[in-house]
Design a protein that fits this description.
alpha/beta, Rossmann fold, globular
Length: 140
């Protein structure tokens, strides 16, 4: 029997809307048969937990989550990519873990969709959830 591929879901997690969107993406990926590491839950990365635990603990849980992943899915929405997400993309790239970008935001830079370094580190870019799921079907 094939092992479920593990996805690290990278993205901003600082507003209620971001947290809910991350959960929505997680649920879509779970329904497709993937295992998903969601930092806001699996690394206990919340304001309450940051007060209770050291930042080093959260950092190590997230880095370990990337290390244990087969694929990183990164939410690239916003004027600029979230700085933590950018770090996770770079870390995954350095470890030869493929990164799939998801950018539903219609804004773009004058010479690209996102920052050049981010854009060159991803293997595919989806513009909506349906396109993401089609890409993920090929990687199962």
């Amino acid at each position: 029997m094939n092992r479920k591929k593990r996805i690290y879901l990278a993205g901003p997690l600082f507003s209620h809307a971001e947290l809910e969107y991350n959960r929505k993406l997680r649920d879509l990926l779970l329904k497709k048969g993937f295992s998903v590491f969601l930092p806001q839950e699996d690394a206990e990365d919340t304001a309450y937990e940051r007060d209770k635990q050291s930042q080093e603990y959260i950092f190590k849980k997230c880095a370990g989550g990337v290390d244990g992943s087969d694929i990183v899915v990164a939410v690239l929405d916003g004027v600029d990519v979230d700085s933590g997400t950018a770090w996770e993309i770079g870390y995954a790239y350095a470890k030869d873990i493929p990164v799939i970008g998801l950018r539903t935001d219609f804004r773009s830079l004058s010479d690209g969709i996102v920052n050049l370094m981010v854009e060159m580190a991803i293997v595919a870019l989806a513009r909506d959830e349906d396109e993401l799921l089609k890409i993920m079907d090929k990687l199962r």
